[in-house]
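Sorry to interrupt, but I need a hand with the structure work. It will help me judge whether the discrete encoding reads sensibly. Write everything out right here, beneath this request:
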Amino acid sequence: MLGKITEVDKLILLYQYETQGELEPESVLDISDEEARFIRTSGEYILWESGKRDFDYPEVANSHWLETTYRGQAARLDCLQSRDAVLCPLLFSSQFHGEWHIHNGFLRMNIESSHHQMELFSVANENSNIHSLLLFKDNQLKGAANITLMV
């Protein structure tokens, strides 16, 4: 189980997901301050970060997203203007409800089911409507996915 995972840790995990492929949740541990400084000052990380931007409210409010995991699972994610969020797995009739917000330019969603609490964390790509996200279930990293804005 992860301890307190910081915003910097989450950014580094997204960087690793986008540059190295699939994340193995069981191998992810809290990233030390020293390791985070080393990664964040590398040329590859700086280049990756320069291709990112902040999410903004008009872009997210009343938006509909397709979430796809590397395993091929898919869900529809609706972000309502009221800041409510609805996650609907495409192969199931279930709906999970929660809320979304933008904090420091990052899109965060907290969604609850009858048995679990989920957090989604995403940073926006500068030149694309496809963004990577991390999925935490009950404070444990469960994997990464992509969300694509449906227009």
